[in-house]
């Protein structure tokens, strides 16, 4: 029988929550938050197939989605927010509630992951655990690194040698897939001979997620090879920073020329305000780990770039054309740059309030008090907060769940298109696992805060 670590005791005492309405309030018990959490966990466990989950389901469970499309019922999705992320919810719930059933659900995901691993140690977006081993692993959308973080959490829970070995297998993939000459990572490995997956990729935080994962591996193992790879990646970041007037980073770079490159038709070469946020954050982490000032030196130039490239509407464009620094957009039918926002293709975040606030605050604080004091300040355990500040949202989450344990959402336009193809009534609600993950974690945050 699996050993369950000592749970946080959920007391039977009531914690009075207020609904936030103008007249005063109806009590919401702590017990209700726990019961809602258990109901949601029990329901989502019925969607687990072959040890994993999809990204979304019709409420009746007849159609399961991967990214943007239905996938066969024999398949599972590795790409977050699916299998490793959902499994992480069950692992946390098992520890919080002391429930062996939830631990077993997380373990089923842990046990199926090796069947989804490439020979080199990476993971694809999705696939059939009973089918042939996938041929290519991807860093897109935190896929391989998301699995790694779950495996680390599971190993820290069990302490078993075989679970550490599973962590190391993915760690080897991170090391193997790094370009030896320039220190970057492709979007996928083995990198294809053609197409954009071979590019050094910052899009969707691919490369920065790898560096953060390596820093975590180094922190828990002490193995210098992980730190050496992370530092080499940091050196690549420094090398790829744009020159005068364009001092941020592009979405992707040709691995040979190290110039900003095309990806999909609607993704022209361009310095990216949104992806550079993650780059600034990881430079802070590299400095805090190593103490080497060279990882801080690119940041003032990057912050200055943001100050001078805000659009008239107060936002930033996603992409700025190399050399001209004009905001540049894309179209889906062919790889042709577009310079008018109104002419850009739909379905992509072309403008937003993108600024590296966290990195700027960290940089300023480090300069004010120094690295050692900053690390001490950051690493000092913090209270989880006053549960009363969470009560209104907890109440809304509890009220929103169905009797069967689902948080439902309206289908997106893309999902509706699939409804029409399959003859599904358009009023059929969807169950999106990202909503489940978010609400379950919030309820657990509340229960932990209530018992701190």
3D architecture notes:
It is a single chain. This protein folds into two domains: 1-8 and 28-176 and 392-452, no CATH class; 223-380, Glycosyltransferase, CATH 1.50.10.20. 43% of the residues lie in helices and 7% in strands. It has helices spanning 30-45, 83-97, 100-112, 143-158, 161-176, 206-221, 224-240, 275-290, 298-308, 357-369, 371-379, 391-400, 413-422, 433-450, and strands spanning 56-58, 64-65, 70-71, 76-77, 126-127, 137-138, 188-189, 200-201, 252-253, 271-272, 316-317, 319-320, 351-352, 430-432. A four-stranded antiparallel sheet has the order 3-2-1-14. A two-stranded antiparallel sheet has the order 4-5. A hairpin with a 5-residue loop joins strand 1 and strand 2 (64-65). The chain is globular, with a radius of gyration of 23 Å.
Could you give the topology of this structure?
Elements: H1 30-45, E1 56-58, E2 64-65, E3 70-71, E4 76-77, H2 83-97, H3 100-112, E5 126-127, E6 137-138, H4 143-158, H5 161-176, E7 188-189, E8 200-201, H6 206-221, H7 224-240, E9 252-253, E10 271-272, H8 275-290, H9 298-308, E11 316-317, E12 319-320, E13 351-352, H10 357-369, H11 371-379, H12 391-400, H13 413-422, E14 430-432, H14 433-450
Antiparallel strand pairs: 1-2, 1-14, 2-3, 4-5, 6-7, 8-9, 10-12, 11-13
Helix pairs in contact: 1-12, 1-14, 2-3, 2-4, 2-14, 4-5, 6-7, 6-8, 7-8, 8-10, 10-11
What's a concise summary of this model?
The chain is α+β, with helices and mostly antiparallel strands and 452 residues long. Helix content is 43%, strand content 7%.
């Amino acid at each position: 029988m699996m050993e369950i670590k000592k749970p946080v005791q959920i007391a039977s005492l009531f914690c009075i929550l207020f609904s936030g309405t103008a007249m005063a309030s109806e009590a919401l018990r702590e017990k209700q938050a726990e019961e809602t959490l258990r109901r949601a966990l029990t329901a989502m466990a019925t969607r687990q197939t072959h040890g994993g989950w999809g990204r979304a389901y019709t409420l009746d469970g007849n159609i399961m989605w991967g990214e943007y499309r239905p996938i066969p019922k024999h398949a599972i999705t590795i790409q977050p927010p699916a299998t490793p992320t959902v499994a992480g919810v069950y692992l946390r719930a098992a520890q919080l509630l002391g429930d062996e059933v939830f631990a077993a659900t997380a373990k089923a995901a842990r046990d199926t992951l090796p069947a989804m691993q490439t020979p080199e140690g990476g993971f694809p977006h999705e696939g059939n655990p009973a089918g042939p081993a996938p041929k290519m692993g991807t860093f897109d959308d935190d896929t391989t690194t998301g699995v790694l973080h779950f495996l680390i959490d599971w190993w820290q829970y069990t302490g078993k040698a075989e679970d550490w070995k599973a962590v190391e297998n993915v760690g080897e993939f991170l090391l193997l897939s790094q370009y030896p000459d320039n220190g970057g990572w492709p979007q996928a490995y083995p990198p294809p001979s053609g197409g954009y997956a071979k590019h050094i990729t910052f899009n969707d935080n691919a490369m920065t997620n790898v560096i953060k994962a390596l820093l975590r591996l180094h922190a828990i193992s002490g193995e210098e090879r992980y730190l050496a790879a992370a530092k080499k990646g940091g050196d690549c970041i420094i090398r790829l920073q744009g020159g005068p007037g364009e001092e941020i980073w592009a979405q992707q770079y040709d691995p040979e020329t190290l110039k900003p490159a095309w990806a999909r038709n609607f993704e022209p070469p361009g310095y990216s305000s949104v992806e550079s946020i993650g780059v600034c954050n990881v430079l802070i982490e590299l400095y805090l780990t190593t103490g080497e000032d060279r990882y801080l030196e690119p940041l003032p130039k990057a912050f200055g770039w943001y100050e001078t490239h805000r659009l008239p509407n107060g936002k930033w464009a996603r992409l700025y054309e190399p050399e001209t620094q004009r905001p540049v957009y894309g179209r889906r039918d062919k790889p042709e740059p577009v310079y008018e926002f109104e002419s850009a293709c739909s379905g992509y975040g072309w403008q937003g309030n993108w600024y590296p606030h966290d990195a700027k605050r960290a940089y300023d604080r480090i300069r004010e008090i120094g690295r050692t004091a900053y690390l001490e300040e950051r690493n000092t355990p913090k209270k989880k907060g006053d549960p009363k500040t969470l009560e209104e949202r907890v109440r809304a989450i509890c009220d929103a769940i169905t009797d069967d344990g689902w948080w439902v959402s309206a289908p997106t336009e893309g999902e509706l298109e699939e409804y029409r193809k399959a003859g599904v009534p358009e009023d059929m609600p969807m169950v999106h696992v990202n909503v489940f993950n978010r609400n379950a974690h919030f309820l657990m945050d509340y229960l932990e805060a209530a018992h701190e």
